[in-house]
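Below is a concrete protein record.
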Amino acid sequence: MKLSDSRNAFAAALLLGSGVIASAQGVAPQPSPTPPAPSIQFPSTVELVTVDAVVTDKKNVPIENLGRDSFKVFEDGKPQEITSFEAVVLPPGAAAAPKPTRRISTNQGAEVRTGRTFVIVFDDIHLHPFQANRAKAAIDQFLKNGTRDGDRITLLASGGGAWWSTRMPEGYLELTSLLKRLDGRDIPDTGQDRVTEWEAMRIHIYRDKQVEERVTRRFETYGVNPGMRNQQSETGAMFDGDPLVQGRASEVYYQATAKNKITLNAMERALNALAGSKGRKSLILVSQGFIFDPNLDEFRNVVQASRRGNAAVYFVDTMGLGGMPIGMTAEFGPAMPTQDIGAAFAENLERAEGAESIAADSGGFTVKNSNDLVKGLQRIADETRVYYLIGYNPTNTAKDGKFRKIEVKVAGKDIRVRARKGYYAALDGQVTLAKKVEGGPDPQFQEALDSPFEVPDIPIRLTSYVFDETLLGKASAILHADVDLSSFAFNAKDGRFANTLEFLLVVAHRETGEFNRYDQKIDMNLRPETKDKFTKSWFPIQRDFELLPGAYQAKIVIRDKNSSKVGTVIHDFEVPDLATWRISTPVLTDTTQPIQPGQENAVPKLVLLARRDFVTGSRLYCQFDVYNPMKDKATGMPKVTAGYTIRRKDDGMVFLKIQPTMIQPTSLGRLSRLIGPPLEGAEPGEYEFELNLKDELSGKIMDFKEDFTVLPRLTASTGSN
């Protein structure tokens, strides 16, 4: 894509061509489908088995202050020695007020906030619109009052269109905005030939004659296919049941199966993404539930994924207090025959058996028969605030791949313990947990994208720049990443260093669910001096997109092909209303393109960076464009002034202040400014750059602030984080 001319030479210099920067000798970009990855594997050696245990009294109040000696762990009925133990008690209270979005996101630095991980599955394909509204209100209260600082939240819709990961409290506003556009899709069948999903399964799978008779009676009562029972075929044989009922049941069953697979696959993806991370992990399924179908492998896959990830599944049943199934009440059609009303109530007990069984097996619980969904979600929040991390080395060292049952006990009256039910042992050698399906997504990339956790194994910085409007009413935006190649496993051969950098970048729109996906591999065959350069200065990657206004979340996955090592970063950014008075994202950098012979007096061409640390004495460049200012009726020209201030963060002392001056427009009325104040004399430390603009004709003002760090000359490194 070529950006519009309003950015002039400045814009062209930033892009350095469309796509990924690969200007160094020996680096060849090669667009391709996402390459295959080695299967995700567990080592064959016996490792520590960890269990998260929640202990409550008979009123479901979490019990604190238990020690190691209070617990006993059994595997397949045999006692195990507890080798590691930790009691986790998080302070009560909700998360603080939302914080501003980070301009630069990185997967490096110490994790100073501890928190829980919640994956909220909004099961829109199993939610009636009315129930969806109740569920959204309850989830909003949970986010507001049930979470705390440092909690990781992933909100996803089972039917697709939403998969948003964030931290609290920063992400509260994004999550609530996302909730507003979600809705239920499960519209009950109001036809006289309606068959419930439970009835359909009983008839189609189990050939349940009682249920078939019930449906047949209902059909006859409504005048649907009367008199089909006991009819004879041309051969004189009696019909084995009502063919219309059986056919309708088969149709409903396959429709229900398709819906169930969608929800279960979404749950499995989310649970797989939690594997390998520590701490309390919970998946909250907000749904009307779904029937348990033993023929679906997806049920077993979800249970196995919860055991692998040591994650508890909680089921919030939105049906509320028990009643007849939706679609079987008088408001949706003729009244149900009296003899079938009891059967309808009994059906409600089976309606959500599948979701309930998953919750129970994973160490979670079900919130049901209650119209107070807020209270149920708060119970989940309270329970996850206090838990115990228990580890043991199993006495059974056989690598047979079999399921091992886990039981955790605590002595005492009316004490309840919830923990995962077991795990699958490793096989001799290595156990493959995920394989690349032909034509499907790369499992390592997919799990990294789905995970709410950022993987730090490859250091990455990621930022965004939003520029002018395109002809399509979209903004021209650039996602820029810097990658630390010092951790890459290069193969040395013939005086060069070879490897392949593989990456996947996804940009998702919060409101519409629309996403842009780009994957590429960059083959590197570097000379020693080039490798040394990128090792010190990091390797730049950038992609340009055309994006509608709104909030976005970008996720990038970087993989070292030689070692299969992965790094990930999540970055939130905003594309403003393009019709308003605004500026492009100011480019803050200390780096310019090399000066070509004969162009010594030309305007410097800036290089995009995803870092904000600059050496004392260097020159701090800033460049931006101004869009949609008011224009003088007489001249047709805008009048915009701009000034800036650089101050220290610790004491607010001003290092440099430039009073506002007029930005001189081009003959076409376009506004752009480039400044380059030196940082000579700036002491090392944290600083703030503040840009102030005013539209002199309309009186509107605009401020932009960004933090940066000044490093000493001798210790500074352009690749520092």
